[in-house]
Design goal:
mainly alpha, rod-shaped, 2 helices, about 100 residues
C-alpha cells in the first residue's frame, strides 16, 4: 500500500461488515420459512392426490377432509411466504447505505 493511497473509510468498512453479518443472519432466518413452504407444498400435493382418489371413490367424508387439509395448508403456505417476503424486505431496507 503506497503512502499516497487514502485510508479506507472506516464507516464504510463497518457498514460492509454489518451487511455481511446481516446476510448470514437472513440466510439462517429464511431457511426455516423456505423449508416450511416446501413442506406445505407437499401437503397440498398429497391432499390433491387424496381428493382425486376420494372423488373417484365418491367418498364424501374423505373429500371434506382433503379439502379442509388443502385449505389449511394453502393458508399456512401464504403466511409462510408473507413472512419470507417480510424478511427479504427488511434485508433490503437494512442494506441501503445511509
Amino acid at each position: 500500500m503506497s503512502r499516497d493511497a487514502e485510508p479506507p473509510d472506516l464507516a464504510r468498512l463497518e457498514h460492509l461488515a454489518s451487511l455481511g453479518r446481516l446476510a448470514g443472519a437472513m440466510l439462517h432466518d429464511m431457511s426455516q420459512p423456505a423449508s416450511m413452504a416446501l413442506f406445505l407444498a407437499s401437503v397440498i400435493e398429497r391432499g390433491l392426490e387424496r381428493l382425486t382418489h376420494a372423488v373417484s371413490d365418491v367418498d364424501a367424508l374423505e373429500q371434506r377432509r382433503a379439502i379442509d387439509e388443502l385449505k389449511v395448508a394453502s393458508n399456512d403456505l401464504g403466511l409462510t411466504l408473507d413472512h419470507l417476503r417480510a424478511l427479504l424486505q427488511q434485508g433490503k431496507e437494512l442494506g441501503r447505505c445511509s
